[in-house]
Amino acid sequence: MGTQVPARGFQMIGTAVDVCRSIFVAHRPASLLPHSKVLWHSGFNRRLVVAAIRRKAVDVVTVILVDPDGDPLPAWLPGAHLELSLPSGRRRQYSLCGDPRDRSAYRIAVRLMPHGNGGSIEIHESLRSGDALRVHGPRHTFPFIDAEEYLFVAGGMGITPLLPMAQAAGRRGNLVYIGRSRESMPFLDRVPGAVIRPDDEFGTPDMEEILARANPHAAVYVCGPTPMQEAAARALPRVNPTCTLHLERYSPTRGTPPSEAVPSRPFH
Ligand SMILES: Cc1cc2nc3c(=O)[nH]c(=O)nc-3n(C[C@H](O)[C@H](O)[C@H](O)COP(=O)(O)OP(=O)(O)OC[C@H]3O[C@@H](n4cnc5c(N)ncnc54)[C@H](O)[C@@H]3O)c2cc1C
């Protein structure tokens, strides 16, 4: 008797495991359930209020957005961006550059583009604390993959999605931050240990030399102006063919998703 009870118990557990396996593995009901990833990927659509606008560098302001009722905001991962519907009706995307653990506010940073199509001018010149905006997101189109090592290369405002990534990577990551001049580069106080490379001090950056800093198999994230991203896509296969290249474009080209992660080999 003393030996039969546990044996029957094990038999029942085995049967239960078989039933679960048949339901969840063989018949895969999970694939019929609503896919939470869809919501996670495309994010939410809500009204947020501008809590503060602060100057961070020449022509760069940060905008802090909060829930009007003070509720915690949806979680996000490094690399995520928001889409803002501005009062004029323009819709513009901005990477989240704060701390993902802070659910009380979203922080974005916006560079004034005097020759753009008015979105950044509207934010710099017309947006005020207390204004309400419809905000879509956070959207995760520039995923922060798990890797043993990272090299982050930020050009100008490309620092915004890379800042939370570099902070999450800690000692596994190195950041090279390129800009026109120190005065134009926001968040210099938040990147201790980064290689700071203003053009007016060091001249035009050499992408091959920068990407050669990555160790083999590292995840290389590049965010910045299109010519810089194109230079990285050409250079990485030559200098570090085992690395993967992860890009986020501020201007989606026709037929190309706004962000892409590609192994460096296809660029050979
Ligand atoms: C996923 C994503 C994240 C973005 N994150 C940021 C951010 O964190 N901070 C920010 O200031 N802007 C960011 N942008 C750009 C932003 O959405 C607007 O394009 C920018 O504010 C200019 O708006 P505009 O109406 O003046 O001109 P637009 O018509 O939107 O842009 C004019 C031209 O400038 C290019 N451009 C826009 N911004 C930049 C830039 N910073 N560097 C180089 N070229 C650029 C555009 O691709 C376009 O060709 C992001 C764009 C995308 C798609």
Automatic annotation (TrEMBL):
Residue intervals of the FAD-binding FR-type domain: 43-145
Signal peptide: none
Cofactor: FAD
Gene3D superfamilies, A to Z: Nucleotide-binding domain of ferredoxin-NADP reductase (FNR) module (3.40.50.80), Translation factors (2.40.30.10)
Spans annotated as Disordered: 248-268
Transmembrane segments: none
Keyword annotations: 2Fe-2S, Flavoprotein, Iron, Iron-sulfur, Metal-binding
Family annotation (InterPro entries): FAD-bd_FR_type (IPR017927), FNR_nucleotide-bd (IPR039261), MRET (IPR050415), Riboflavin_synthase-like_b-brl (IPR017938)
Name of the protein this chain belongs to: Ferredoxin reductase
